[in-house]
Amino acid sequence: MSDQPTFDVPFKSDVLPQRLDEDSQIRFRCHKGISCFNACCRNADVTLTPYDILRLKDRLGLSVTEFLQQHTVLFEMDADRLPGVKLRTDDEGACRLMMEDGCSVYQDRPTACRYYPVGHLAMRPKDSASAEHHYVLIQEEHCKGHLEDRHLSIGQYREEQGLLPYDEMNRGWYELLLKKKSAGPTVGKPPELSLQLFFMACYDQDRFRRFVQSDAFKKMYILGQGDYAKLAQDEIALMEFGYRFLRQVLFGEQSIPGREGAWEERYEQRKEVFELRRQAEIARAQQQEDDKYQNDV
Ligand code: SF4
Ligand code: SF4
Question: 77, 90, 140, 255: which could form a disulfide with 82 (CB 3.0–4.6 Å)?
Answer without folding.
Answer: 77
